[in-house]
Amino acid sequence: MNPIFSALQTSVFEVMSRLARETGAVNLGQGFPDDPGPLDVRQKAADAVVNGWNQYPPMMGIPELRQAAATHFKHWQGLDLDADSEVMVTSGATEAIAGALMALITPGDEVVLFEPMYDAYLPLVRRAGGIPKFVTLTPPAFGLTEEALARAFSPKTKVVLFNNPLNPTATIFSEADLDLLADFCIRHDAVAICDEVWEHVVFDGHRHKPMLARPGMRERTVKISSAGKIFSLTGWKVGMVMAAPKLMRVLSKAHQYVTFTTPPNLQAAVAYGLGKDDSYFEGMRADFQRSRDRFADGLKGLGFSVLPSVGTYFLNVDIAPLGESDDVAFCQRLVTENGVAAIPVSAFYAEGAVKNVVRFCFAKHDATLDAALERLAAWKKAA
């Protein structure tokens, strides 16, 4: 068996979700909403199954979705994209990331990773033959520094894998951070694979700033988006990739020999959804922000130290003021003894792990969040 995958431990998400099922805990670990997603988008998918095309769609994606993506990102992010040569549809953002790594690096190339990071990044980089170089981010800001980037970049740097907004920290990189990273990419002739799946799930008046729009980055950026995150339909696995034609030509070859296509009915529904009125996207953000505030206020009322959350479905708590120094042990006790499942953020680090931060998912119904707060209150009272 390939040692890169055979040696991997069971995902922390699966471990915590299994414990939640076994104990009847409130599951605020894995990141998916309680809400089923917008009804009109789901109905569009159902209609497309019954009345639409169900054979192989074009490898690059149906024309309607590619054009809808180009139009959508022009409207929201000011990007000028050619739907025919610069947009591709994949079976989820993770497929897009895997394909981009396989297409752009050769064994021995160095890949800059920012930790904490989505757990798929590191095994995918290693399987593609890349040598990971880590930039370790620390709370509460989780920002970039020139010194940290200088340690990670070298003449062997080929690719930067960059997640913004950042899961699991729930933070957004500043424009100064983006310009600093862009400067390093340009100086080292590196391509930025930008995982921007949370681009619409931002709060407090923030608007996403894509790396593709930074000066000097148009020809060296792969932008990856997710319909699953945009529409809270995480099971659909419809990704969108945007890149200059020179990059797209090789990205499409990787996609061709991995999944080739994505269900056409889902593509048709996503094309429809991307054209929805601005009020849908603004309302979606407002609803999530309200849930964030409800849960954050509840946690603060119980004496928890809550870190800022300006994007994603997540809220982080610093457990050091509670006298806790091991987030894994804390989360195991919390789910087995107190009935609330959370995720230890140290699981997202490969080196220099921060061990005092725990992540909760707030994309839940009020009753679910309130039940979790009640159990946390009982734990605090007994502590």
Automatic annotation (TrEMBL):
Residues 26-376 form the Aminotransferase class I/classII large domain. Its EC number is 2.6.1.1. GO terms for cellular component: cytoplasm. GO terms for molecular function: kynurenine-oxoglutarate transaminase activity; L-aspartate:2-oxoglutarate aminotransferase activity; pyridoxal phosphate binding. InterPro entries: Aminotransferase_I/II_large, Kynurenine-oxoglutarate_AT, PyrdxlP-dep_Trfase, PyrdxlP-dep_Trfase_major, PyrdxlP-dep_Trfase_small. It comes from the Bacteria. It is an enzyme of class 2 (transferase). Its cofactor is pyridoxal 5'-phosphate. CDD domains: AAT_like. It catalyses: L-aspartate + 2-oxoglutarate = oxaloacetate + L-glutamate. Keywords: Aminotransferase, Pyridoxal phosphate, Transferase. NCBIfam families: PRK08912.1 (NF006488). Belongs to the class-I pyridoxal-phosphate-dependent aminotransferase family. Homodimer. PANTHER family: FI04487P. This is aspartate transaminase. The lineage of its organism: Bacteria, Pseudomonadati, Pseudomonadota, Alphaproteobacteria, Hyphomicrobiales.
